[in-house]
């Protein structure tokens, strides 16, 4: 079970507790981006850990600060770890994310399509 203390020790960061089951950390990365990692309950499905890169402000900053590793590198590593991949599509056949499953774990990786055809990781949800 992931606790605020364990998360803080592992990341070496001060963890903010929202409630007994909801806690995490956020900070600015520079270049117009922020990062957050949080653990929260999600209905009957149990807890989920979210890693999210968010633009700061109204603009659309260059994705350079969040594109290492890029989407392909990140998802290939999940496949090397034994996760089976399946892409998910939304309205009008638009690609929304890739899901990765193996016994006892589900990971959803959401892309950010950046300039020049680069595809970065914008969000990772782990259940």
Give the arrangement of secondary structure elements:
Layout: H1 4-11, E1 16-19, E2 22-30, E3 33-41, E4 47-55, H2 71-80, E5 84-89, E6 95-102, E7 105-113, E8 119-126
Antiparallel strand pairs: 1-2, 2-3, 3-4, 4-8, 5-6, 6-7, 7-8
Structural write-up:
The protein is 14% helix and 49% strand. With 127 residues, the protein is mainly beta. It starts with a helix and ends with a strand.
Instruction: Please state the overall shape, judged from the principal axes of the Cα atoms.
Output: globular
Largest sheet: 8 strands, antiparallel
The computed structural class is mainly beta
Number of helical segments with 4 or more residues: 2
**Cα radius of gyration in angstroms:** 15 Å
Question: How much β-strand is present in the residues?
Answer: over 45%
Mean pLDDT: 92
Order of helices and strands: HEEEEHEEEE
Assembly status: single chain
Strand order of the largest sheet: 1-2-3-4-8-7-6-5
Strand tally is 8
Sequence stretches where pLDDT stays below 50 over 5 or more residues: none
Percentage of residues in helical conformation: 10-25%
Q: How far do the termini sit from each other?
A: 12 Å
